[in-house]
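Long-time lurker, first post.

We've been arguing in lab meeting about whether S-adenosylmethionine would sit comfortably in this protein at all. Half the group thinks yes, half thinks no, and nobody has a model to point at. So I'm putting the question to the forum: if I give you the sequence and the SMILES, can you give me back a predicted structure of the complex? Inputs are below. Any interpretation is welcome too.
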Amino acid sequence: MRYGLEGRPTGLALVDYYGEKPPLTVDYGSSSLRLRQKKISAKGELLVRAVNEKPGARVLDMTAGLGIDAFILASYGHEVTMLERSKTIYLLVADALKRAEQDPQLKPVAARLAIHHWDSTRPFLPAKGFDAALVDPMFEEKKKSALPPGNMQMLQAFLGRGAELHPFLAAAQALGIRRTIVKRPRLDRAPLDNARRPVYQLTGRSSRLDVFFNQV
Ligand SMILES: C[S@@+](CC[C@H](N)C(=O)[O-])C[C@H]1O[C@@H](n2cnc3c(N)ncnc32)[C@H](O)[C@@H]1O
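Top reply:
Settle the argument with this. Predicted structure of the protein with S-adenosylmethionine, as tokens:
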């Protein structure tokens, strides 16, 4: 067995027993996230701009991963429901959320976050009344993605790559979600969905957000 989940004093960790990378943990109180949190604004934070709603909007994060994007949106004031297909990654994030609930500064943000172990391309029945959906799977391409390289490499090594956009767009549409935001590497030009084009794009330093409108 190459990977294992270990309970450590700092929280649950995904350990690569053959690799040299440090164990993967999720810490919403890390100094880098606290710094980013302080800088969040409606104009400055690309994700917030893409959601384009006042604080309090309901966002369905269809590919939770480590929950960083969801945490940023919840820090702005949005209510974010995360869906994660991998049981291991789900457990890491659920553990991080529990720890965040114990931290007086993070508690209000954690209260706006929820995670479910679920494949979001399958109908998620409780998902009603969302204002926007966020999709950031690991698309099949070679360029760097937007997460911090260490965590991203570990996540990719553990989960592998390969996702099609269409099933996510179709699932968001079936749930009646008008806006779907797809996160991709900044310079990635490969078409992901032959049938549909984004209505607009927001380009940041390392990533790009393609915004689709669904007919609902
Ligand atoms: C690149 S990561 C997302 C990173 C996330 N945006 C963040 O800020 O941490 C992609 C995640 O999507 C998950 N995923 C891929 N397809 C999925 C699906 N159909 N349903 C739910 N989760 C999925 C993967 O297991 C992986 O954890």
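For your lab meeting: The chain is about 30% helix and 25% strand. The pocket of S-adenosylmethionine is lined by residues 62-63, 65-69, 83-86, 89, 119-121, 136-138, 147, 155, 159, 163 (CB under 6 Å). Whichever side wins, do check it experimentally.
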